[in-house]
């Protein structure tokens, strides 16, 4: 049996699928995800696609974090899908869910933790206030 085709997917596929704003395209993506679950294709989602997805869902679709987090978790845990930097993405999703910081700041904290770094230089101390395991520093 040959290896499944590996392909990277773009943010707009996830947006169409998750929002259903274009039913035909959403159905196309659903079929593609089913192929991934069956093992006939292996889908790769770059970490930056996850960050862009959150931005689009918040900015254009006005979803709140309570609506976004389950969608992100579903993507990260879909069989046949490889999410880049999965450990960082998963931790960022958890931080985003459990705090008031925005997703990108949660990502920065998760990245620092994964790298074993305690200190983050920033001018935006209030965004990181109360986040355990990192200390904000001024340059």
Number of strands: 5
Main beta sheet: 3 strands, parallel
Within the CATH hierarchy, at the fold level, what is the topology of the largest domain?
A: Rossmann fold
How many helical stretches? 7
Element order, helices and strands?
EHHEHHEHHEHE
Oligomer: single chain
Named at the architecture level, the CATH assignment of the largest domain is: 3-Layer(aba) Sandwich
Structurally, the number of domains stands at 2
Strand order of the largest sheet: 1-2-3
Secondary structural class: alpha/beta
User: CATH-wise, what's the superfamily of the largest domain?
Assistant: 5'-nuclease
**Poorly predicted ranges (pLDDT <50, ≥5 residues)?**
none
Give the helix proportion (percent range).
55-70%
**Backbone shape:** globular
Describe the protein's architecture and organization.
The chain is of the alpha/beta class. It folds into 2 domains: 1-84, 5'-nuclease (Rossmann fold, 3-Layer(aba) Sandwich); 100-139, no CATH class. The protein has helices at residues 11-19, 23-38, 47-59, 65-76, 86-98, 103-114, 125-128, and strands at residues 5-8, 41-45, 81-83, 119-121, 135-137. The strands form 2 sheets. The protein has a 3-stranded parallel beta sheet with strand order 1-2-3. The protein has a two-stranded parallel ribbon with strand order 4-5. The protein is globular. The termini are far apart. The mean pLDDT is 93.
């Amino acid at each position: 049996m040959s290896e499944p085709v590996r392909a990277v997917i773009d943010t707009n596929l996830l947006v169409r699928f998750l929002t259903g704003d274009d039913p035909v395209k959403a159905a196309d993506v659903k079929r593609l995800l089913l192929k991934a679950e069956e093992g006939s294709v292996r889908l790769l989602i770059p970490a930056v696609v996850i960050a862009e997805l959150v931005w689009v869902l918040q900015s254009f679709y006005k979803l709140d974090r309570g609506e976004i987090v389950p969608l992100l978790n579903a993507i990260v845990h879909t069989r046949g899908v490889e999410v880049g930097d999965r450990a960082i993405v998963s931790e960022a999703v958890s931080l985003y869910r459990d705090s008031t910081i925005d997703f990108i700041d949660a990502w920065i904290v998760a990245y620092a933790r994964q790298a074993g770094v305690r200190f983050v230089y920033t001018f935006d101390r209030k965004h990181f206030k109360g986040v355990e395991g990192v200390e904000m520093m001024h340059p």
